[in-house]
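Appendix B. One record, verbatim.
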Amino acid sequence: MTTTRPWTLLGLLAIAAAAGAALGFAGSPALATQGYATPGQIGLPVPATEVARGINEFYDFVNIIIIAITLFVLGLMIYVMVRFRESKNPVPSKTTHNTLLEVAWTVVPILILVAIAIPSFKLLMLQYTYPKPDVTIKAIGNAWFWEHEYPGTTPGDKTFTVTSNMLSDEEVAEKVKSGIPTPRLLAVDNEILVPVNKVVHMLVTSNDVIHNWTIQSFGSKIDAVPGRLTATWFRPEYEGVFYGQCSELCGMNHAFMPIAVRVVKQETFDQWTAAMKAGDRKKAKEITDRVALDQAGIKSVADAADQQR
């Protein structure tokens, strides 16, 4: 009778675990909603930038390694408990050293750490190598809302600021009636706009306590520290609205200071910034609402009313 070596079984178990993890953890747009998490969602938010995609891939890769190691150790423990139980081995082995095993359990962890370190360093380089910006915005954390300042791009050009507060439940209901998807506790009264496929530098600071500017779909997360200026960058690859939240415990209403960034065509962004610089916030709001309806697949408020029926 032929017997299967225990190491073969353990190896197959680890391979199966890795394959299962690859299928289970791989992010899929079919399983996640653009821009924010939804009930029952599997996986991380859909990435909208190269950095976020790299973070998701690294997360999946490390989880595969973790699951494979865990199941390998579990299988090894079960094998040892069964194979070397007292009833089978009344006289225990007195072996204390095995050169091959000692080399293996030293070298293999080193190789695993190297395999993790290489993509980790590449991702860090991508995150902290800032390309030339097309748009620069200054985010200012306050208790408990965000301000986003768009500095002038040329001498004499006007600077304008967008103040964003979380929508109340009544305001959310009104927006939903208009046909604009509006998630509770994430939607804000004034979204900020950025152009698609353009590099955005986000300079971040705070007026009071430490906050944190985070948009998961962009792979951006940076502390807002009073008296200091920190920075992050992103290049959104497709249009839509992407939500984030303050990710640093900052007081009573920490959970209620969301961030909403709407990615639009360059032409729309130019129209919106022109309206804001001219002080015509009503027109800027109309542009934002029109784009929101277009991105939701609704062409007019009348269409939205028909859809509600």
